[in-house]
């Protein structure tokens, strides 16, 4: 037997991306558009955040901002921190995740599994969330720790650039000319910003739909507490710097997001996270209003295993006064009643805080042009 010639196999970083897109079989009716889901949980760290994490780390290695034995410091209670912890372990970097009390036991365990150090911030900021206090502390640590690097996901434009180059390019190819609309949730604005820019350059007829959670103020409105993880911010992020690229935006309730995430598992066999539920509710509404022969695409941003003790636990849902109901009919009824928060986000939705990066002493604010032109 002859052995094949030796080849260099990919490393972990190279396994990011090229995630599958599948069509749903049961949630839409025959006269409606096809609903297709890009399974970002297929990334090695289990979420779409592997894309900006790998892109930003590689860029920092190339520019010398991150050197062998260096320390990565980031504000994240979720998937971005997990992605950095994973790549940090693979490359020998120390990783410090600045988190808040909302960190779930599962995410803490994942960060620890990759050897990340965890610092918990317990002071709420002026919006009642922890984002600003977390970012400020991460920036302070960055100044104190020699050889440290701040990916700075909320202010670093390489975040949306990663999605423009990879997620959007893949999705447009996979979904084909039938694509009528793309639905994305928003927190740092990385994937909505990158996908919106790419779609409007390459396929301007495709509608771009943004989804925030009720209580978050990415698109303005009154802040209040919410449970949906992964979605929301108390300002419009710079990665979403051109709201004219977004055709309409929705605010989805916790109830909608949790219900849809469970319904996706029960009716389609896709175990994804709660932010996917938020996006799916809106995507289903769009598909119900779009004729057969067209497609509506939505991202399943992470794997559902992370939510087995929350979204997929009936006791937890009852304790948080959320419904355990998860039928296709219930989800369709809810989607049918959804109305957009805005159909002209550029006019209605700007909640930019131009001084914020500087106020929080963001390292990206200190050298904005270094990254800002890349890929634009
Ligand atoms: C599961 C999940 N969904 C959605 C988002 C929002 O993505 P972005 O930060 O690109 O706006 C995140 C961000 O962390 C996430 O972890």
From TrEMBL:
SUPFAM superfamilies: Tryptophan synthase beta subunit-like PLP-dependent enzymes (SSF53686)
GO BP of this protein: alpha-amino acid metabolic process
Ranges where the Tryptophan synthase beta chain-like PALP domain occurs: 13-302
Superkingdom field: Bacteria
Cofactor: pyridoxal 5'-phosphate
UniProt xrefs under Gene3D superfamilies: 3.40.50.1100
InterPro entries xref list: Cys_Synth/Cystath_Beta-Synth, TrpB-like_PALP, TrpB-like_PALP_sf
Keyword annotations from UniProtKB, A to Z: Pyridoxal phosphate
Protein name stated in the entry: Cystathionine beta-synthase/cysteine synthase A
Organism (species): Actinokineospora auranticolor
């Amino acid at each position: 037997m002859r052995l094949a010639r030796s080849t260099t196999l990919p490393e972990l970083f190279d396994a990011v991306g090229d995630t599958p897109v599948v069509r749903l079989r049961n949630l839409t009716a025959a006269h409606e558009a096809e609903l297709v889901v890009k399974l970002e949980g297929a990334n090695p760290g289990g979420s779409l955040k592997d894309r900006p994490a790998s892109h930003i780390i590689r860029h920092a290695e190339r520019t010398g901002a991150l050197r062998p034995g260096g320390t990565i410091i980031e504000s994240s209670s979720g998937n971005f921190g997990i992605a950095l912890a994973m790549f940090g372990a693979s490359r020998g970097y120390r990783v410090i995740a600045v988190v808040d009390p909302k960190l779930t036991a599962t995410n803490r365990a994942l960060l620890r599994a990759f050897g990340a150090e965890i610092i918990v911030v317990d002071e709420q900021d002026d919006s009642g969330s922890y984002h600003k206090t977390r970012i400020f502390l991460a920036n302070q640590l960055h100044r104190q720790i020699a050889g440290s690097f701040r990916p700075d996901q909320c202010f670093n434009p390489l975040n949306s650039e990663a999605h423009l180059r990879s997620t959007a390019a893949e999705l447009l190819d996979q979904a084909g000319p039938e694509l009528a609309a793309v639905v994305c949730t928003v927190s740092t604005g990385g994937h909505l910003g990158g996908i919106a820019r790419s779609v409007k350059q390459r396929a301007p007829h495709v509608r771009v739909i943004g989804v925030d959670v009720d209580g978050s103020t990415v698109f303005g409105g009154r802040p209040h507490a919410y449970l949906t993880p992964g979605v929301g911010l108390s300002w419009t992020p710079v990665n979403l710097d051109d709201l004219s690229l977004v055709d309409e935006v929705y605010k989805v309730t916790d109830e909608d997001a949790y219900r849809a995430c469970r319904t996706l598992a029960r009716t389609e066999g896709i175990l994804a996270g709660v932010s996917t539920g938020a996006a799916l509710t809106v995507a289903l509404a769009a598909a119900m209003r779009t004729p057969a022969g067209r497609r509506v695409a939505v991202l399943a941003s992470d794997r559902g295993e992370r939510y087995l003790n929350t979204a997929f636990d009936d006791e937890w849902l009852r304790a948080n006064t959320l419904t355990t109901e998860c039928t296709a009919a219930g989800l369709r009824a809810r989607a049918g009643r959804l109305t957009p928060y805005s159909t002209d986000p550029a006019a209605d939705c700007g909640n930019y805080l131009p001084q914020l990066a500087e106020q929080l002493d963001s390292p990206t604010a200190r050298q904005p042009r270094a990254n800002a032109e890349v890929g634009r």
